[in-house]
Amino acid sequence: MTMNVKNLICIESHNKRELHRAGWIIVDSSTVIENGFIEIENGFIRDVHKRTPKEKSIDHGPGVLIPPLVNAHLHLELSALNGSLPFDKGFKLWVKMLLEKREALGKEKLIKKAQNSVQDLIKSGNLYVGDISTLGITKSIIEDSALNGICFHEFLGSDILPTFIQKNDSVSFSVAGHAPHTTSPQLLKVLKKRSKSEGLPFSIHMAESDDESEFINERKGQWADFLTSRGIDWSSWDIGSKTPIAYVNDMGLLDPLTIVIHLLTVNDKDIEILARSKTKVCVCPRSNQNLHGKLPDIEKMITVGIQPALGTDSLASCDSLNVFDEMIFVKKQYPGLDPATIFSMGTINGARALGIEQLTGTLSKGKRAQFLYRSVKAVNKKDLFQRIISNE
Questions:
Q1: Binning pLDDT at 50, 70 and 90, where does residue 1 land?
Q2: What are 177-212's pLDDT values in tens digits?
């Protein structure tokens, strides 16, 4: 399967044996080969060599071969809302309008736009995803596509519905809690137990808004009033005098099989808890900037050993689902970050978050024979990473 998109080619080989040569090969952020080739056998990488192949090979040119991108957090079912919601009216109004417009569009339009987004992802080299769905309409779309990764069925409130959980080589199916202030602690514990029993990641939005933090820390505020108005009894929830991170940690939800998303309202102790528990982290900076005017403290996370993955969230809060665009934005907003680190956020860090690092994330021996070719010109390794995350 080969697709051309501007200066990008997506390659996937299932042939018995193939050699793919390029001017550069990024095996991972610390292993870069100049003038080498990838040896493919039966759909997997057998080895990566630093030389010109003597046998017949596919020569891609002077550019670079890199691993596929991993979008570790997105909502495909919201693709039909692209460009239809204002960002400057506050987060609460944005959520209200999102729910209203999603309902008004109907499942047929939501499915069609989600299918279009899947094709855009594939063409732009974003071959692995962690998709979140509350309606359950994207499972079959992803399963029938060339995408790989995990489909998370997301739950709110306190009632759990029958859901399919299964670990597979291509597309796995797991569960997610929406957020600690929208999903009851009883339900969160049940969901976490179910996903963990299958060795699958559990996903949850965390520390995204001031309303969330106020409710969990002070047991009051607009969110408390909202839950009460909806007839939701939260009086037994073990909240008060704690942050959202501390709250879910006390419930036993934080471990290497949990992915926490966003993290806009966290303190140093929260970040230490995440690092100590080896919880996976996924940030969505473009969406955060649009909806909240805030950005996660990526530098501090990296300082304590957290390796954040990148997600785009949805087209309701961002203008594309392309992780290349997310990396470009991160480079601009975090000029102190090493370009190689940003590259890892969009590849191996996402693979680790989704628990698929044995399949993708790097171009090392044993990984799937899937990679991207970018026709960039670079003078050295540092310049190479710089150009990749600058779309040059």
A1: very low
A2: 999 999 999 999 999 999 999 999 999 999 999 999
Residue where the block lists tokens 């390796």: 307
- The DSSP-derived string for 68-86 is PEEEEEE-GGGGGGTT-S-
- Amino acid identity of residue 383, one-letter, is D
Contact 73, 280 (CB under 8 A): no
DSSP 148-215: EEEEEEEE-BSPPPP---B--SSEEEEEEE--TTTB-HHHHHHHHHHHHHTT--EEEEES--HHHHHH
Neighbouring C-alpha atoms within 13 Å toward the C-beta of 5: 17
| DSSP per-residue codes, 277-289 | HT-EEEE-HHHHH
Please give the model's pTM, rounded to 2 decimal places. 0.96
| CA 242 centroid distance within chain | 27
Question: What are the structural domains, with CATH classification, of the chain?
Answer: 2-67+362-388 (2.30.40.10), 69-353 (3.20.20.140)
Query: Could you tell me if 331 and 389 are in contact, meaning their C-beta atoms sit under 8 angstroms apart?
Result: yes
**3 state DSSP class of 10:** strand
Q: Which residues, 6+ apart, have CB-to-CB distance to 251 below 8 Å?
A: 185, 188, 189, 238
Q: Which residue has the tokens 């710089």?
A: 386
Sort residue 306 into left (φ over 0), alpha (ψ -120 to 50) or beta. beta
What the block records as the tokens of 338 is 């090493």
φ/ψ region of 283 (left if φ > 0, alpha if ψ in -120 to 50, else beta) reads beta
The DSSP symbol for 1 reads -
Sign of CA dihedral 23, 6, 351, 346: positive
Q: At 24, is the secondary structure helix, strand, or coil?
A: strand
Output the pLDDT for position 385.
96
Helix (H), strand (E) counts: the chain: 13, 16
- Yes or no: say if 346 and 352 are a contact pair by the CB < 8 Å rule: no
Beta-carbon contacts of 352 under 8 Å, excluding residues fewer than 6 positions away, are 280, 307, 309, 361
With beta carbons less than 8 A apart as the criterion, state whether 66 and 347 touch.
yes
